[in-house]
Design brief:
The protein is an alpha/beta fold. It has twelve helices and eight strands. It has a five-stranded mixed sheet with strand order 2-5-6-7-8, sandwiched between helices. It has a three-stranded mixed sheet with strand order 1-4-3, covered by helices on one side.
Length: about 375
């Protein structure tokens, strides 16, 4: 998707901007030097679904179409509930700007905005579609950062003699369902103060880079000096007994960020080699391992079982039922909220499902309240 912004921050990066003042600067340098991370396939899929939801005619594949229709049907329900017989004006994928004097300082492009002008003020609905599979925690403050800036930006661009009555923000997530919050005018004022402070912190000549969970989503990871320092730090620390306790907690965070950065560097060079095979001397992209895949399961069953080569039980032992894919198909056809459909799916298959657990990865335990 083409970026129609100048080098300004936006609602989609507000959570990162709040935590790391250098976020925008690093992203700008990465873009200018050609060191932006390669785009993930899921991001490209999400872009296509968003464009389709905005009204663009696209040939979506079956999974994209299923996700698109689920989100579109939910959107209609959300809109109808909000309107409750009223009438309003809808905009989709429209960019709104925040100005300081005559200069634009920030912009946002919400998926869907509905403004109802009432006699005593404007009532606003903003919907953000989420196509990914990651669980969304409504109790996590950063979950709402993007929509906080969207709400403020749309409110500042809405003219009404009575001002703003309310901004309702909705996360319309394919797999986490519908999450809703209402922002009254006084909350928007607080967001405005915080946003201006965030912009100021990132506008100085040498903004501070602060590593954290958000680094994995930062477009400037490959040029960030903080990332380079962490690589050197991890390399030095491994020459000594590895730390434990509080020092170990901090060190594991650094190791995980460095590991993610190293994976990103490999992806970057793979992209470069695909564009310019001679750019890394003797390094090349090797051929991937070949594997066989059955395209006609019923045909394979007939060929092996019906003709008596193996038994039906032997055939079924060799067929791995991909529970995640089965659950996705079930939810797509159920026509119900994802949480309810998943629960029904698990109940239906309870007699034939065995719960197993893989080896755990390192993670932080949530503090006990």
């Amino acid at each position: 998707m083409q970026d129609d912004r100048p080098s300004l921050g936006s609602g989609s990066g507000y959570a990162r901007d709040k935590h790391c003042a250098a976020n925008r600067k690093m992203a700008r340098i990465a873009k200018e030097t050609g060191k932006e991370p390669p785009r993930e396939k899921d991001a490209e899929t999400g872009d296509r679904i968003h464009q389709w939801l905005a009204g663009r005619e696209l040939d979506l594949d079956s999974e994209e179409a299923e996700t698109g229709h689920v989100l579109k049907n939910r959107l209609q329900d959300i809109e109808n509930e909000f309107l409750a017989g009223r009438h309003g004006v809808v905009t989709k994928e429209h960019r709104f700007w925040i100005y300081k004097g005559l200069s634009a300082i920030r912009s946002s492009k919400p998926d869907y905005v509905l403004v109802v002008n009432e006699p005593n003020g404007a009532d606003i609905l903003i919907i953000d579609h989420k196509t990914g599979h990651a669980d969304i925690d409504p109790e996590e403050a950063d979950t709402w950062a993007q929509l906080e800036e969207y709400a403020l930006t749309v409110a500042l661009n809405t003219q009404h003699p009575g001002g703003i009555k309310r901004v309702r923000v909705v996360i319309n997530s394919r797999w986490s369902g519908v999450l809703v919050r209402d922002f009254p005018p006084e909350y928007l004022i607080a967001i405005h103060r915080e946003l201006l402070a965030t912009i100021a912190a990132g506008s100085i000549a040498d903004p501070k880079a602060t590593p954290g969970w958000y680094c994995r989503y930062c477009a400037g990871r490959l040029v960030c000096p903080s990332a380079s320092m962490e690589i050197e730090l991890v390399e030095r620390r491994t020459a000594y007994p590895l730390p434990e306790g509080k020092d170990g907690e901090v060190f594991i965070d650094q190791v995980k960020r460095v590991s993610s950065l190293c994976d990103l560097v490999i992806k970057y060079y793979k992209k470069r080699l695909s564009d310019d095979p001679g750019c890394l001397g003797i390094w090349r992209i090797g051929e991937g391992d070949e594997y066989r895949s059955i395209t006609d399961l019923e045909g394979a069953f007939v060929a092996l079982v019906s003709d008596g080569h193996i038994t039906q039980d032997e055939f079924m032992e060799c067929c791995d039922g991909h529970i995640g894919k089965l659950e996705k198909k079930y939810c797509n056809r159920a026509g119900k909220p994802a949480v309810q459909a998943k629960k029904e799916f698990n109940n239906l298959l309870a007699p034939v499902i065995e719960l197993k657990r893989k080896a755990g990865s390192l993670e932080k335990a949530k503090e006990l309240l």
